[in-house]
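R.M. (postdoc): so does anyone remember the format we settled on? I'll just put the structure tokens first.
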């Protein structure tokens, strides 16, 4: 899927798994990890960013999403649900600019991903694979492979700290109403 290729490439950079013969994860495995931390927006209003011209005249041609890391095939519409074509798109930052001021609100429909959370999940999987490696000591020579798993876990914990927060609703079933 071409709309997510740039996101997969950014995850590869975060986990230090370059594409090629020695890659640890396939693109499909990375996409699966991303899907677990995907958020869908349906007609979510974008925030208008004012541009101020000489004399104090404000125009609104730039619009921001509250988060970045969007697929490239998002659909942006106006208040009448007419599809808008931005002059420039920055799905990584979540910013779209139009050549003329559209009618408000400007709405977005598409998918955004938590790259840090997905990267942390992949690093924990990789760490589990590396945990089978063992240290060797012979004739005064010591080779330590166990540090690879520890380093991947440490980086995963750093990325979990940067991941998007998640919330859920809990329902108690043990109360009498």
């Amino acid at each position: 899927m071409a709309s997510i290729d740039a996101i997969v490439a950014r995850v590869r950079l975060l986990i230090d798994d370059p594409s090629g013969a020695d890659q640890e994860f396939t693109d499909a495995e990375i996409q699966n990890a991303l899907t677990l931390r995907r958020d869908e927006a349906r007609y979510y209003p974008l925030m208008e960013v004012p541009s101020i011209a000489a004399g104090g005249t404000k125009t609104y041609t730039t619009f921001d999403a509250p988060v970045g890391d969007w697929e490239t095939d998002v659909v942006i519409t106006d208040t009448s649900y007419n599809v808008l074509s931005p002059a420039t798109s920055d799905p990584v930052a979540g910013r779209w600019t139009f050549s003329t001021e559209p009618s408000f609100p400007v709405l977005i429909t598409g998918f955004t991903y938590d790259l840090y959370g997905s990267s942390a999940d992949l690093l924990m999987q990789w760490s589990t694979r590396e945990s089978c490696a063992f240290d060797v000591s012979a004739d005064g020579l010591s080779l330590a492979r166990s540090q690879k798993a520890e380093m991947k876990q440490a980086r995963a914990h750093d990325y979990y700290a940067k991941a998007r927060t998640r919330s859920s609703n809990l329902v108690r079933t043990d109360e009498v109403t």
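R.M.: ...and that's the designed sequence above, right after the tokens. Also worth knowing: Strands lie at 38-45, 47-52, 58-64, 75-77, 83-84, 88-90, 95-97, 107-113, 136-138, 141-143. The mean pLDDT is 91.
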